[in-house]
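Hi Y.,

Following your request, here is the sequence exactly as I used it, all 291 residues.
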Amino acid sequence: MKLFKKKNYIRMNPPEVISEAELETPSIPDGLWIKCNHCDKTIYTKEINEYKICPNCGYHFRLTARERIFLTVDENSFEEFDSNMQAKNPMDYPDYDKIIEKAQSKTKLKDAVMTGYCKIGGYNVVLAVMDSYFMMASMGSVVGEKITRAIEAATEKKLPIIIFTASGGARMQEGIISLMQMAKTSSALNRHGKAGLLYISVITDPTTGGVSASFASLGDIILSEPKATIGFAGRRVIEGTINEKLPEEFQTAEFQLEHGFLDKIVTRTDMKNTLIQILKLHCQKEVFENG
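Below is the corresponding structure, written out as C-alpha cells. Let me know if you'd prefer a different format.
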C-alpha cells in the first residue's frame, strides 16, 4: 500500500478544537518528512511503522478503520456485515449527497464505521471501528444504525462487543436524526449489559460531541490511547461559556484518567494484548459460526 507521495515538508496538527478545515485534513499526510506538532520534531516517514506512533514523543497519529482492524483482530478472522448501508438526505441539506460521495471516494467506505464478527486472541467478538477519515467520523443515521445492529448482534449471539470510537460529534447535515442515534445506541447497550455481556469501549483521537456523550462513555471497561482528545464541547466554547481559562491538559486522555473517566490508557502497540487479557477474564473460547 502506497502511503507517501513526494512532497517536502508538512506540519501535522493534533486536534484541539474540531474545525471545518480539520474535518478534511488527514492526520498523516503524504510526504517524505512529517512534523509532529505534539513534540515539534521532524520525522522521516520510514520511522513510522504500521502502528503510526511518533518515535520521539509517542503521539498516536490517526488510523483508518481497516488499519485498526488489521492491528487488532486475528489474521483473516474479520467478517464484515452491513457494509453497503449508506446515508440518505433526510433534511434536504444542500450538496449532502456530494459530500457523502467525496468521503466514500476518499475512504472506500460507505460511511464512517465498519462492523463485523472477528476473533481476538481466539475469542469471538463483535467489533465496530469508526474511521475519522470519513467526515471526521461524524455520527449520522448510518453510523448509529450500524453500531446499534452490531450491539444487537452481540446480544443475540451472547458475545462481547468492542467499539473503537473516533468522532467529531453528531452529523449536522442530518439534524435531529443524528442526535437520535445517541439514545438508540445507548438503549441497545443497556439491553446488552442486562444480558450480562461485556462491552469494551476504546477511545481514540478525537472522540467528541454526541459520541463521547453516548456509547463511548458506557463501556464496562473504558480504555484510551495516549494523548487522545476526549470531550463534548470544544475548549473555546467552554471557556467562552464559563469565562475561565481551562487547564492545558483539559480534555486529554491523561486528564480523563486522573478524574476517573477512563480505566486505563493503553499504547497502540499493547492494545491487542490488553484486549486479550480482558477477554480472557470475562469470556470463554467457543466455536462460533456466523448465522
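Confidence is low (pLDDT under 50) at residues 1-17, 287-291.

Thanks again,
Q.
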